[in-house]
Design goal:
By secondary structure, the protein is an alpha/beta fold. It is built from 18 helices and 15 strands. Bound molecules: alpha-D-glucopyranose (GLC).
Length: about 500
């Protein structure tokens, strides 16, 4: 019998993408289908999807409505319009309704916007399964947004024979974003805060905490992150609960789409290359220096960074280290990204302080991003925390060597350089000094052309495949189903 998996998430690329979560939801269900699983996706129908779908030439079909319990009285209902489409061979259901009013933001900063939106959508997705008479074996929720689906399944759904066999899974991509204090909006769906003593009081009406407390299996997007979130430093207040549930928790690394990220077919690059034609890469470096107003110099290493500039990504500690390296003429630096205004403002002056050595681009520009991956020598990822991380995988594929903080997925993907092995450089302590030391280790190897070549070849040969992740997810689904069997017997 084919395993049926309904994926619930706030993003699915290319229909709607804010960050790495969207890429994962765009790729994983496809890889699951390739191993024989009937994987489908249900996402919120944000008004902005309309124009995105049109520009991609993806047709959205209307498919009636479902009705859900919604309101302060048990007899009150609300109806959700359904649209349907197929993206990359994966059926997608889009659930709309009154909480989705234009102008919309995918994420707001208040639970008063996101609570009703995401809870309504979660309930509508569950109701849709019954309407389609499509009985999922697994409800797979990514991050907190559809956490109410898992909570509802545990608190109410399992009383219905339709849902009795269904297991639930939550994948944690970013633990601090929890959608807490949703009591008022859970109540609209007929749900009360949890009384689970393993949940801290403040998390008993939080969508992340509820999902983690009730899911049959929990996974984080790397082994490293799965281990870190059980401790206080990375646990975002839920580390106690995660420790209690350690037997249900595992890590599965995300994959990378190696067909989409390929320096031998990438038309954004001045010269295409692969591991056998690494010599062509020099043309990309020269073109990048020219386009970015850097001194044309094939010998100086370029440090590249493509990142959101926010608390998570570590660009506060990067600034003093970069300045020091620039002041001593040890490297050139190119930054592409947007984010926190203070951080943006702190990098802008580099342009005038180090003319010809620093190039700062505070905007979104996917072609420039590819040129940085394909032309810089060292790729910077000083993350404070990094559940998995995608950029280091892309950089490696493009022969740019990561210098990264030893946290989360970066530990699982950037194996440290030792003579003749390894693919990058890691530092542990969250400080400018530790980062600078790691950069200098990279500069020293860079100065030895032969050793650097070997490093690049090894990095380019690494594959984090979606096939492998899909097999691990399939094994986790089997485990989750066994948990349900055990639960039913108990
Ligand atoms: C989040 C994490 C990032 C991860 C991505 C996809 O954005 O911050 O590390 O790669 O989710 O799982």
């Amino acid at each position: 019998m084919t395993l049926k998996v309904l994926t619930l998430a706030a993003e699915s690329a290319p229909l709607v993408k804010v960050g790495g979560l969207g890429d994962v939801v765009g790729a994983l269900p496809r890889a699951l289908r390739a191993v024989g699983i009937d994987a489908r996706v249900a996402i919120p129908h944000y008004p902005a999807i309309k124009s995105q779908a049109e520009s991609l030439g993806i047709a959205l079909k209307r498919k009636g409505r479902v009705s859900i319990r919604w309101g302060s009285h048990a007899h009150e209902t609300e109806s959700a319009p359904i649209a349907e489409t197929t993206v990359g061979g994966v059926p997608h259901y889009l659930l709309g309704g009154p909480p989705f009013r234009p102008p919309d933001k995918i994420y707001s900063t208040t639970i008063d916007d996101d609570g009703p939106k995401f809870i309504f959508y979660s309930m509508a997705a569950m109701s849709l399964c019954r309407e389609l008479d499509w009985q999922p074996d697994i409800i797979h929720v990514h991050d907190s947004h559809a956490g109410a689906a898992i909570y509802w399944l545990a608190a109410k759904g399992k009383r219905e024979s339709f849902w009795r066999q269904t297991a639930s899974v939550i994948t944690i991509h970013n633990l601090p974003f929890q959608n807490n204090h949703a009591k008022k909006y859970l109540a609209l769906a007929g749900l009360r805060p949890s009384r689970d003593p393993r949940l801290p009081m403040w998390a008993r009406d939080g969508l992340m905490g509820l999902a983690i407390a009730c899911a049959d299996r929990i996974n984080a997007v790397s082994d490293g992150y799965a281990a870190e979130i059980m401790g206080e430093e990375y646990g975002a207040g839920l580390d106690g609960l995660l420790r209690e549930r350690a037997d249900r928790l595992s890590g599965i690394l995300n994959g990378l789409d190696y067909a989409a990220w390929n320096p031998s077919t990438d038309h954004a690059l001045a010269a295409r290359f692969d591991a056998e034609s690494l010599d062509h890469r020099a043309a990309n470096k020269a073109a990048l220096q020219k386009a970015c107003g850097l001194k044309p110099d094939p010998h100086v290493p370029i440090i590249g960074a493509v990142s959101r500039l926010d608390y998570q990504k570590g660009f506060d500690i990067a600034l003093p280290a970069i300045k020091e390296a620039l002041a001593r003429g040890e490297a050139q630096f190119i930054l592409l990204g947007t984010g926190a205004a203070e951080l943006e403002a702190s990098y802008e002056p580099l342009l005038t302080e180090y003319p010809g050595a620093a190039s700062i681009h505070l905007r979104f520009d996917s072609a420039l991003a590819n040129r940085i991956y394909g032309g810089c020598d060292i790729f910077l990822m000083p993350s404070r925390y990094e559940p998995c991380g995608t950029s280091q995988m892309i950089a490696m594929r493009y022969g740019a060597i990561p210098v990264a903080r030893a946290t989360g997925g970066l530990v699982d993907t950037v194996w440290p350089y030792r003579a003749g092995s390894g693919v990058g450089f890691l530092f542990g302590e969250y400080s400018s000094a530790a980062l600078l030391r790691a950069l200098r280790r990279a500069f020293r190897v860079y100065a030895n052309g032969e050793a650097w070549r070997g490093l690049q070849r090894r990095a380019m040969a690494v594959r984090f495949s979606w096939e492998k992740s899909a097999e691990q997810y399939a094994a986790m689904y089997e485990k989750a189903l066994r948990e349900v069997l055990i639960r039913r017997k108990a």
